[in-house]
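Posting here for the record, re: 5-amino-5-deoxy-1-O-phosphono-D-mannitol.
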Amino acid sequence: DKGNHRHFMEKEIYEQPEVISHALSNYVDFHGHTVKPVDAAIDFKSLRGLAVSACGTAYLSGLVGKYWFERYARLPVEIDVASEFRYREMPLYKDQAALFISQSGETADTLASLRYCHEQGLKIGAIVNVKESTIARESDAIFPILAGPEIGVASTKAFTCQLAVLASLAIAAGKARGTVSPEEEKQLVKSLAEMPRIMSQVLNSIQQQMESLARDLSKFKDVLYLGRGTSFPLAMEGALKLKEISYIHAEGYAAGELKHGPIALIDENMPVIVIAPYDRFFEKTVSNMQEVAARGGRIIFITDEKGAAASKLDTMATIVLPNVAEIISPMVFALPIQLLAYHTAVFMGTDVDQPRNLAKSVTVE
Ligand code: M6R
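Prediction output follows.
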């Protein structure tokens, strides 16, 4: 049932504050401001590293997770798309654990990667939405995403709930390893607890702007997304979402890679969507934006209040989100990216929930 919404995708975008709050409550104690203990099957304290694998959007949430595990838990993460991971014959060690991320829990390549790690004797954790799925069944520890059924082929709420789970696990891992202090744990969990409210505020405040911007975006054939840090995987997720449902060609790049190739493409026909919260990368990303502007590129700038005040560049549009803690910015910044793709597709008249050539669950290689 779509409720008041035109498409499941729209419904699922707007459900995010509620489902993410539900997902988080499984991993954090909102009142004590602590993370809950993690399933003992994965002993973060004694791990030498994590191997992570997934496909599509789930892979991109894993990439964000890599930044968190490395930063907060000082835990090295080896991550690859499952279709490569399963054949790479990478050396794995028993003191590594493996994490697989999947909405459906049935993705063939992800399952094959899981079985490979299992044969190597690694403990297996599954971040899945469907708890009865094959991936869940074959794992030592299940970390449910708790997003509720996701019908739209383009993943939205499963993505942000995967992020919420990964953020909580990274903090729990940091706590176990002594790299996150009790004070830091408290701050991080407080930020996570604020997220559902901030997400609903953002969804309400940007809707109209996203709709009118989508009209402009629908006129283009190619779009480039740029970001640094956790905004880099988010840039790739933005590009994936747009191409899946609007069929506009889009690429996501690390902003620092611009001058190593994609800058050759910049002209007035290819808008550049820059994802830049006012974080420790902001100045660097703005200098990449200047390079785009100097070549006549049009910029769609997704930033926060501090970022908007700090940049004086002319843009095609600036989307201003509230200033938020760094740990929650990927979930909050996912919202304009999802809405922009959604409204562009609606405007172009594509089949938003069932885009051509795609299946919700990819159970063949
Ligand atoms: O069910 P899974 O999370 O394992 O699916 C992985 C990908 O097939 C999936 O994320 C796909 O990329 C989505 N269509 C993205 O919107």
